[in-house]
Specification:
With 418 residues, this protein is an alpha+beta fold. The protein is built from eleven helices and 23 strands. It folds into two domains: 308 residues, Bira Bifunctional Protein, Domain 2 (BirA Bifunctional Protein, domain 2), CATH 3.30.930.10; 93 residues, 3-Layer(aba) Sandwich (Rossmann fold). The strands form six sheets. Strands 3, 7, 8, 9, 10, 11, 12, 13 and 16 form a nine-stranded mixed beta sheet that branches. It has a five-stranded mixed beta sheet with strand order 20-19-21-22-23, sandwiched between helices. A three-stranded antiparallel beta sheet has the order 4-6-5. The two termini are 24 Å apart. The protein binds adenosine-5'-triphosphate and magnesium ion.
Length: 418
Amino acid sequence: MKYSQLFSKTLKTAPNATDTVNHRLLVQAGFVRQVMAGVYTYTPLGLRVLNKISQIVREEMDKIGGQEVLMPLMHPSSLWKKSGGWDKVDVLFKLKSRTGKDYALAVSHEETVTTLAREFIHSYKDMPMSIYHIQWKFRDELRSKSGIMRGREFLMKDLYSWHATQADFDVFYAKAKAAYLRVFERLGLTAKVTEASGGAFTEKVSYEFEVLSEAGEANILYCQMCDYCVNVDDIKTYHEGDDCPKCGKDKLRPAKAAEVGNVFDLGQKYTKAFDLTFIDEKGEKKYPIMGCYGIGISRTMGVLVETFHDERGIIWPRGVAPFEVQLVSIGGGSAEVEERAEAVYKELTQAGVEVLFDDRAEVSAGAKLADADLIGCPTRVIVSEKTGMQVEVKKRSEKDSTLMEVNELLKKLQTLKD
Ligand code: ATP
Ligand code: MG
């Protein structure tokens, strides 16, 4: 993609009225625009990141047997009345049609998915079964702040599973937790598995995946010597300075964190409410055990920016960067440099590398380099009068650059992939 053709452009100065790093950098670098509080448009640049996060999540959900579906955003009120959510869920957006019918916008999809599962789950032989989708959610949040980390409209991956026995559920629950940790590891994030209450969903303990972040809204206590972590908002048993209940080697420390995922044992709450039954091995009619598993895709994008940036801009981890390489031509209008940069662009893209080519002739070298730092592609490649038949390569996360042949650069990029 040539920068001159790219739909969005960077802003020279930081935008006004942004309260967090992710909001400021994502707007300034041209990844998102706010439409109103908590509602954003993702530009082509922003959508590339969102899609890459989604793809990593998709791959890990597929590995544990999840099958992808797509459920709607608008639901009849009857679904939400059946579960009690119509009156109880305070963040539910409600709509009225011109004929006076009531609808809800999807806060989550337990109601829709349990109704759907009734069509296909009849016997113990139909389980275990798990389906997921990556779909927008709407929540009437009172305070939509922290950029894309708390939207009133946001992208979530939600997976649902059904099991004939608690033992079978427990096996899958452990697999799903491991898959979550793999997702966050691939994204370059350290997510702490945190015990919390099940909130509106269930009486049982649930697990949150928390990433330490000043822009997060969760208050946690964690141990630096082991992976122990609790959400202080839910679990009042522990206090700052208490010995770690798991390893005893350190005192619990308080921190702010962002919840990037959550898994719940729903028990039979929804299967009973929606009368989803199956016939077990002995021919008896029973309610399946159900689980639900969410990952905040758009919030995770915000958390990535909060975690990976410096004073000059974003530093995207490789797996989710909008482009792998930002190619910059510095020639002050020299035809030779422009031709050479064009040739390097062709060579890299033909080799399958995703390149954002800053081809602007009228813009100063300083401004182009500042933009490359702001946008934050992992590798910066410069073609200038000084580079001759080589290119100057620098990682966004490092200071020093190296001159090398394009072939060598391709080899290096390939090794990173393997
Ligand atoms: P929170 O406590 O932050 O309000 P939640 O516990 O209500 O979140 P869940 O119902 O568990 O959220 O939703 C699953 C995931 O969706 C969360 O772990 C989070 O990553 C994401 N998420 C929830 N609410 C929002 C929001 N308003 N904006 C962006 N992402 C969100
Ligand atoms: Mg949650």
